[in-house]
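re the bet — no i am not wrong, look at it urself. input seq straight from the record:
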Amino acid sequence: MSALVRLTDQVWLYPRDPNPERMQPNVGVIVTGQETILVDAGNSPRVARRLLLALDEIHAPPVRAVIYTHHHWDHVFGGLVYDAPIIAHEICRKNLVELAAKPWGQSYIQEEITRAPAREVGLRAMARAVEDWRSFSIALPEITLSKTLRLYSGGLTIEIEHVGGQHAADSLVVRVPEARLMFVADACYPPPPHQRRPDDTLDRQMIERLADEGLDIYVDGHGDPRALAEFRRLAVE
């Protein structure tokens, strides 16, 4: 079980799986004196249960909210475990309502691989991630935003902003100004592999805009946390 990594006094990270084939991204953990707020849900109920055990180890308060940064399965399939309200962009909810209506299971995933071979890598990772499809469901957002939303808890401000981008139109970033930290998730990434063209790159304009905020720590979805200078360098690499 991965241990939580402490980023600041009140912000932790449940780190990504180092094996990219497993497609388990970072999950942000914001711990206040009253509650825990998660940034993304993990790619499966199994990962979500492991995260809850890790939260118990640091005596974190209960999870009271989960923020989906966008609708891609690896960021949301753990959502049903937490029994907490889910916050997302309104486009994210629309997309997930459509996904939730699909007959998820091994046979359906195989049908999707046959129908869309370009998605095979991600679909096979999905098939491995979820142990029991019979009890699986997609937890839908109960609170949506169109532009921005602020949460206040235990002296912290959690700023949620819709930034969109080429990876997913519903992408959000999550700032904790008091911690001088931002969860960028996948917002700066190129389109997903099955939609990607050879000349697609990181969204350099978005990286520069977010870096211009001058925070200390930037956490993307599938990489290690970066200091400001390191994050800014992504725009020129």
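see?? The chain has one domain: 5-233. told u. also The domain at 5-233 is CATH 3.60.15.10 (Metallo-beta-lactamase; Chain A). so pay up
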